[in-house]
Specification:
Elements lengths: L5 E6 L2 E6 L10 H16 L5 E6 L24 H24 L4 E5 L2 E3 L1 H8 L2 E5 L3 E3 L13 H5 L5 H10 L2 E3 H6 L5 E3 L2 H16 L3 H16 L2 H15 L2 H12 L16
Parallel strand pairs: 2-3, 3-4, 4-6, 5-7, 6-9
Antiparallel strand pairs: 1-2, 7-8
Helix pairs in contact: 1-2, 8-9
């Protein structure tokens, strides 16, 4: 299937989703907000892959929200203030949900960032499970620089990833957070000299994840997300309930036997999600 904003390749259980509007610095236009969640949900719901890698093209990962989307804010078809407010609220909820799909996906999502990740690019990256970057990469909470408050996911996620004081500094000043500093504070897993070496390494990591039991990876992601948002006692209780119902002895034995026989284990893929 072809897309206006993306190139998608699925190979060896890895889905590579590439932002593909380099001439527009991969800004997020209307097509982006329709295509991106549909792509992620299709891969996850239909168990098309065991890992998703999100990368980009051109000098920047993403310039963030396409500002031409603001041009219709006061259009004649929504003349009343209340109508504009409701329409704006619904649009923000849609954009938020477009990145929530990354966190809600059963499979891990890895971001590979080159150049700048501005505004919405930060929202996208922080919704992923892991982030890798090139030496020239940087992140900017761009909204403050254009008289906006970031509203698509930056703050709820960023404060759980890095120290609050740094989040506040980035939010109030709109300064660049370089790759090395981002790694030091724990936002970036690893930094690479260039995009190709980054992608090579990320694909190796993705392949390692894809070789594990999908149900166990799904459970791990679910438990990490749950533990992040709940008390230790609640998280311990939840993992006990989860493993009581989800533990698969056959897959445990397959993992052990494959290790003893020095071969790749053969695991069952996640089931296709029923249509809602």
């Amino acid at each position: 299937m072809s897309y206006k904003c993306f190139a998608v390749e699925i190979k060896n259980q890895i889905a590579h989703v590439v932002l593909n509007r380099p001439e527009k610095r991969n800004s997020m236009n209307q097509d982006f907000w329709q295509e991106f969640p549909a792509i992620i949900e299709d891969i996850d719901n239909n168990a098309r892959a065991r890992v998703i890698v999100v990368s980009s093209t051109g000098p920047h990962f993403s310039a963030g929200l396409d500002l031409t989307m603001f041009s219709n804010t006061d259009s004649a078809d929504r003349p009343h203030k209340n109508q504009r407010a409701v329409a704006s609220y619904n649009h923000i909820l849609h954009m938020q949900e477009s990145f929530n799909v990354l966190e809600n996906a059963r499979i891990p999502v890895i971001a590979a960032i080159q150049g700048g990740a501005f505004g919405g690019g930060v929202d996208l990256a922080t919704a992923c499970d892991m982030r890798y970057a090139t030496e020239d990469a940087f992140l900017v909470v761009q909204e403050i620089n254009i008289a906006l408050t970031a509203d698509v996911g930056t703050f709820p996620r960023l404060v759980k990833l890095i120290p609050e004081g740094i989040v506040r500094e980035l939010a109030y000043t709109g300064r660049k957070l370089g790759a090395q500093e981002a790694k030091q504070v724990g936002l970036i897993n690893q930094v690479f000299p260039d995009q190709q070496s980054m992608l090579d390494a990320v694909m190796r990591i993705a392949a390692e994840i894809a070789s594990k039991a999908p149900a166990a990876v799904y459970g791990s992601k679910r438990m990490i997300n749950y533990a992040r948002d709940h008390s230790t006692a609640d998280a311990l209780d939840y993992i006990s309930i989860w493993n009581t119902s989800m533990m698969n002895n056959a897959e445990i034995m397959e993992a052990l036997q494959a290790k003893n026989e020095a071969r790749d284990a053969e695991f069952v893929d996640l089931p296709v999600k029923p249509n809602r």
